[in-house]
Amino acid sequence: MQIAISSGDDRQKGLIRTIKRTSNLEAPIISLSGSHSGEIFSCRFDPTGQNIAACSADRSVSLWRTYPPNTNYGLLSNLHKAPILDLQWSLISPTLYTVSADQLLSMTDVTTGQRTRKIRAHRGIINALDRTLAGGAGVELVATGSDDGTVRIWEGGDEGNKQSVAVFDVGCPVTSVCWSMDGQNVYVGALDNEIHVYDLRKSEQVYTLSGHSDTPTSLSLSPNGSYLLSPSFSSQTIIHDVRPFSPSPSRIHRVLQGAPAGFENTLLKGAWSKDDGGGRVAVGGADRMVCIWDVESGRVLYKLPGHKGTVTSVDFHPKEPIILTGSKDGTMLLGELEPGVSV
């Protein structure tokens, strides 16, 4: 791809700069806008990287193609009766899981746009969910975390039970949930500034991760399952070491600065790069930028502009060096990055 940066003056004709493209996106930066009238709380690539889903305060979910033409091919507006706060694509079926301030967990078939199941999952706002296949038996398990102070585990898919498989009573509002790589542990971020680790088989808390001076806003596991990324209201982002035998007693691997949380108590969602095996992490900020760090050195690699409001959610493409960002301004951006060095 070549971009001429001459100003029309014949003497400047030599100024043609070649930009090396690193992905199959139509352009290095693409705006996905026009579908949401409220802020975007979460946006994620599906496991193939071909599709994008976003959920919003306007109570709808939008579906987009990652590659040209970047059509907004679906708008699901009848799933919930309140803002939709988080979503996840199923790992095994064309299903989208969503949770909302209406206390429901919904499962939707994205091929038809029809809701296949709805579960009154909690007695408070549901802030977060995650899913895993690693529990065995080929059953997808979904964890939901709520303001009611509990984390509940559900069977995914159409056939699942209406009753929760397990309940963990954290004792204060839960902001974030994340499964371990093997599906045996659930990491839970809560209002007490701790990250609680629950063992599904023992049905009990096995340890906690400390270090935050304010509430963790999201949890994201590294591609190799060894590290846990958690931004917080204090504007400090911590990477914890969750390997069974950590060399550090505090389990704190890196402390990252550079993404201001702001004063709106937004549950900012961070992410790990996947094309290079987790060499980079990203968190959006109240400065309307996305901050991307190199994990090994802890230094800031990029501060990416483009949004007109707080960047609430980020995700990395599963195969290519592409970052997806969603904002309070109701829009998403797709951005192409330099390829990472595999770790």
Q: Your description of this structure?
A:
With 343 residues, this protein is mainly β. Helix content is 0%, strand content 45%. A four-stranded antiparallel beta sheet has the order 3-30-29-28, with no helix packed on it. A four-stranded antiparallel beta sheet has the order 4-5-6-7, with no helix packed on it. The radius of gyration is 20 Å and the shape is globular. This is WD40 repeat-like protein.
Topology:
Layout: E1 2-4, E2 16-18, E3 29-32, E4 40-45, E5 51-56, E6 61-65, E7 72-76, E8 84-89, E9 95-100, E10 104-109, E11 114-120, E12 126-132, E13 141-146, E14 150-155, E15 166-169, E16 174-179, E17 185-190, E18 195-199, E19 204-209, E20 220-221, E21 227-230, E22 236-241, E23 252-257, E24 271-272, E25 280-284, E26 290-294, E27 300-304, E28 311-316, E29 322-327, E30 332-336
Antiparallel strand pairs: 1-2, 3-30, 4-5, 5-6, 6-7, 8-9, 9-10, 10-11, 12-13, 13-14, 14-15, 16-17, 17-18, 18-19, 20-21, 21-22, 22-23, 24-25, 25-26, 26-27, 28-29, 29-30
Q: Helix/strand-derived class?
A: mainly beta
- Terminal CA distance: 29 Å
Rg, nearest Å = 20 Å
By DSSP, the count of extended strands is 30
List SSEs in N-to-C order.
EEEEEEEEEEEEEEEEEEEEEEEEEEEEEE
Note the overall shape.
Answer: globular
Residue windows where pLDDT falls under 50 for at least 5 positions: 1-7
Instruction: Name the strands of the widest sheet in spatial order.
Output: 3-30-29-28
The overall pLDDT, averaged over residues, is 93
Q: Largest sheet, if any?
A: 4 strands, antiparallel
Count of discrete alpha- or pi-helical segments spanning 4 or more residues: 0
In which range does the helix fraction lie?
under 10%
Question: What proportion strand?
Answer: over 45%
